[in-house]
Structure formats: structure tokens, C-alpha cells
Design goal:
The chain starts with a strand and ends with a helix. Helix content is about 40%, strand content about 20%. By secondary structure, it is an alpha+beta fold.
Length: about 230
């Protein structure tokens, strides 16, 4: 029987490299760390319905305000604690119909998958018209932002806010734990994701500094408000 609610889909960026670059023992350790990370954060925030299929995470909650708060806070912690353990995560939150079980499927699953795959950063983006956010806008929970997409329209979405490490730490954690090999040359595919993630960090800092409303996006492109803050108007 189909349910209607909020649905999160998330993947670990570079998970295939972790598998390729690790010994059997290292792989077992990394898988254990990933599963333990998800399970512990899910327990902390009361997320009862979740599934792991390799590096892909499904999680769902009911269609009410308190459940959405739990899912947003779960997502924020997943991003923050994930990068600490060199699990860079990209995901999407949507609202819609899905059937949960051994095979989880439905329109919400497809919508979440498409939005997750379209992004080009470390982060979790919500569907543009996600219901229930009216009183939840917060610099520390969810902000209006134009997430970097690989294609499609430039459009503001609700975006999960999280604690992004300073640049040097972000680079170190996004290359450790099997995500790269010693001496491996980095590609622009990796570099663009890091650049886009840092742009969001700078935008968060601007909101804090200027006490601007997180309920609307201040600019046309992510770099615009940062350029303005530097006097390059």
C-alpha cells in the first residue's frame, strides 16, 4: 500500500573509488563505518524508516511538521558527520507517494533520484515546492539557495544547511579514506564539487554576518552575493 510523506535519497560520492582503492579489510571497515554512521544518526533523530543499499540511503517520514524537522536535522547531521569520516554525501528530499518494502518504489523515489543525480556538490537539496517549510527557514536548518546543477534551469530551492569544514579540511576529508590514491591527480569533476560546496559555505557566512533572511535567495547565482560582499558590484 502506498504512503505519502517526505522522502530522502542520498548517495556517498566516490563510493566506487573507496571500494576500488581499499583492501578487503579496509573495505569491511569503511562499510561498517558507513552503516554505523547512518544507524546512529537515525536513532538520535528518531528516523525509524530507512534502508541502505550499498552507499544509497532511503529514509522517509510522515507528512507532518515534526517529522519534517526530524528529517531535515537528520540530513544536516548526516552531511556534517559524513564528511568528518570522508563520506561526502549528495542527496535530495521530496514529498510524494511511495511504497516502502523490500522493493521501495513510487513517484517520490523517482523524483528524489532525479534531483539527487542532477546536483554537482556535497549537499542535500529539497524539491523547490516542498510543503511544510513556512516556519522552518533557519540559517542552521534550511535556507533558500540556488543549488549547483549539472543541467537544467537556474532556480532557488530549499537547501539543507550544514557545518562545512574550512577549505583545507574539506579537501583533506574529500580525498581520504580511499576516495583517492596516494599521488593521484585530481580532476575538475572533483574540483567543481568542492568549489560549489565552498560557495555555499561562504553564502552561509554572509547570511550569518548580515543577519539576512534564510527564507529567500539573495542573488541570481551563488557567487553574486559573495562578489557583492567583496565590493565587486
Amino acid at each position: 500500500m502506498a504512503d505519502t510523506g517526505y522522502f530522502l535519497m542520498a548517495d556517498v560520492l566516490g563510493f566506487g573509488k573507496i571500494i576500488d582503492n581499499s583492501t578487503a579489510l579496509e573495505r569491511d571497515t569503511r562499510i561498517y563505518d558507513w552503516v554505523s554512521l547512518v544507524e546512529s544518526i537515525a536513532e538520535e533523530f528518531g528516523i525509524e524508516q530507512f534502508q541502505l543499499i550499498s552507499d544509497t540511503l532511503f529514509a522517509s517520514v510522515a507528512s507532518d511538521r515534526s517529522a519534517l524537522i526530524k528529517l531535515l536535522d537528520f540530513s544536516s547531521r548526516l552531511l556534517t558527520d559524513g564528511i568528518e569520516k570522508s563520506f561526502p554525501i549528495r542527496g535530495a528530499i521530496v514529498h510524494g507517494e511511495f511504497t516502502w518494502g523490500k522493493l521501495t518504489y513510487g513517484p517520490a523515489v523517482i523524483d528524489a533520484h532525479r534531483l539527487e543525480q542532477a546536483q554537482n556538490w556535497i549537499g542535500i537539496t529539497c524539491a523547490a515546492e516542498l510543503p511544510g517549510l513556512d516556519e522552518l527557514w533557519s540559517i542552521d536548518r534550511v535556507v533558500h539557495y540556488s543549488p549547483p546543477l549539472k543541467h537544467g534551469l537556474i532556480k532557488a530551492h530549499p537547501v539543507v544547511s550544514w557545518s562545512i569544514p574550512i577549505f583545507g579540511q574539506l579537501v583533506q576529508r574529500a580525498t581520504a579514506g580511499g576516495l583517492t590514491q596516494k599521488g593521484e591527480k585530481l580532476t575538475w569533476d572533483w574540483g567543481e564539487k568542492i568549489n560549489n560546496t565552498v560557495l555555499f559555505q561562504l553564502y552561509q557566512q554572509r547570511l550569518h554576518k548580515n543577519k539576512e533572511s534564510p527564507a529567500r535567495f539573495h542573488g541570481r547565482l551563488p557567487v553574486e552575493p559573495i562578489s557583492a560582499a567583496l565590493g565587486n558590484t
